[in-house]
Amino acid sequence: MTDLRVIPTAPDDSADGAADTGKRPAPLLRYYGSELRRFREAAGLTQEELGKRINCSKSKVSMVETGRSSPLEATKKDRLNSPFTRQCEEALNTGGALTRILPLLVDVEKAYPDWFRPFPGLESEATEIYSFEPQAVPGLLQTEDYARELLRSYYPPISDAELESQVQARMHRQEALKRKMPPLSWFLLDEAVLRRPVGGAELFAAQLDHLLITGGNRWVQLQIIPFTRGPHALMNGSMVILQLPKDRVLYVEGQGSAHITATEPDVYKATLTFHAACAQALSTEESLQLIAEIRGTLC
């Protein structure tokens, strides 16, 4: 992960915290640590107080929060053994949020870029998804061929094996929309997404057909912001807001980096911005009509 800015290496809140080794902690450990620290502070506990509740040293809590120690106590039989996490879940009433991060700490999922790995786990837990994309069809709505062609455009190029692995991982993420009770999903796209051909006419036509089918799903709201509406509130780039069982998080992706935050002011501002942009978009019916019109020009 190049930069997951939601994971600052927070200073120890005690004077005798473990010494900094000078080595940058692993990003996914910092992600776990930042979530632990957020839940601890929400509970009004110091590191020492949490340590006493879970029969653990203050130093251990500090090391985990700053990404310098793993909560896992891996064994050959159970690589996800983490009594530390179970005790923190009980003490802080996190609703399983820390446990859901544990699989990300084990290097078994190599399909996703390192900086992206925290996101699919959160996405799979979402009950509501609000997504804006200015340039490309969002991953949850891509056809396999579209995804493959898009990944081929990346630079520096990735190997064929890595490309196929990422395509299949992206298709796997879409299983969430096929569940009996899928998340309520609101996709907002700039018209540029529909005007930028990816692959040949046949491939792009199939992608637009897929948008038309998905847009007719009653669990999905699909809106387009047309060029004729001029500038809009989300011209700075893509973002995703996820409603989780106990939290709402904001995901913003940059070039080879990602920013995930559950900080309430940031998420609230992003939510207002999203709905402001929706107010400038076509209705869902008008949006599907525009997609159909562009599709009709292809083949």
From TrEMBL:
InterPro entries per UniProt: Cro/C1-type_HTH, DUF5753, Lambda_DNA-bd_dom_sf
Q: Where is this region: Disordered?
A: 1-24
Q: Output the Gene Ontology terms for molecular function.
A: DNA binding
Give the HTH cro/C1-type domain ranges: 36-71
Q: Where are the transmembrane segments?
A: none
Which PROSITE patterns does this entry report, sorted A to Z?
HTH_CROC1
* A Pfam family this chain is assigned to: HTH_31
Recorded protein name is: Helix-turn-helix domain-containing protein
Question: What is the native source organism of this protein?
Answer: Nocardiopsis flavescens
